[in-house]
Specification:
Blueprint: E1 20-26, H1 29-55, H2 59-93, E2 106-112, H3 115-139, H4 145-179, H5 183-193
Antiparallel strand pairs: 1-2
Helix pairs in contact: 1-2, 1-3, 1-4, 1-5, 2-3, 2-4, 3-4
Region (Disordered): 191-214
Biased composition (Basic and acidic residues): 203-214
Protein name: DUF1845 domain-containing protein
Length: 214
């Protein structure tokens, strides 16, 4: 008696999701490093918070996380803007009108798959703008080399710490989903989103990691 042919398993379909693709020129090494070291991992976590965790019906948890994340991003943006305004006034007070060019700017292709990803992309752009003003003051000898090096590093680290906090929050929510038997749904939803595999920029990986020695 002939054996019945093995039926292939049905394949799950990749989610067709709305996305904006925006291309920016990023100049400063500090903003470049935030993108290279933190952005892709953060993008996956923010998409999971905004979209994927809702699939498994964790509305209250997601709403709480989204509120906290939005507040953290807004606070960081306010701090960046305040420092940028302060340095721009210092630049104007010293009669400086020049803006430096950069030797190795990068093209950043941002894939905006959720509102909070858009918010963090704007945070990176604001960091880049702040660094440009700071570098201008340093080149014009208004601020010292030591102060500039430390300030660059601290602002870069502030964004990277924020990214790490958000990723950790999403992981905890993911772990809670596993504990309630929904972990496989989240894993498959992440896989189907395409966010785990698509490129987010054209950056290379040859830059040194410790900004304090530049």
């Amino acid at each position: 008696m002939a054996e019945s042919p093995v039926q292939p398993k049905s394949k799950r379909h990749t989610i067709s999701r709305p996305i904006f693709e925006r291309t920016f020129s990023i100049n400063s090494e500090q903003a470049i490093r935030v993108i290279r070291d933190s952005y892709h991992r953060l993008m996956v976590s923010l998409y999971a918070i905004d979209v994927i965790l809702r699939i498994i019906g964790r509305e209250e948890t997601v709403d709480e996380i989204e509120s906290i994340v939005s507040q953290m991003i807004a606070e960081c943006a306010e701090q960046l803007q305040q420092e940028k305004s302060r340095l721009e006034k210092l630049k104007a007070d010293n009669g400086i009108t020049e803006t430096p060019t950069y030797t190795h700017p990068r093209e950043f292709v941002a894939k905006i798959a959720s509102p909070q990803i858009a918010q963090f992309v704007e945070l990176i752009r604001l960091l880049d703008q702040l660094m440009i003003v700071m570098d201008t003051l340093w080149l014009c000898q208004v601020i010292s080399n030591k102060h500039c090096i430390e300030a660059r590093y601290q602002w870069q680290q502030r964004l990277q710490r924020l990214a790490n906090k958000i990723v950790t929050m999403e992981r905890h929510a993911h772990q809670a989903a596993y504990a309630q038997g929904h972990g496989e749904e989240v894993r498959l939803a992440k896989q189907e989103s395409g966010l785990n595999v698509e490129p987010v920029s054209t950056f290379d990986h040859d830059s040194p990691r410790d900004d304090r020695h530049i």
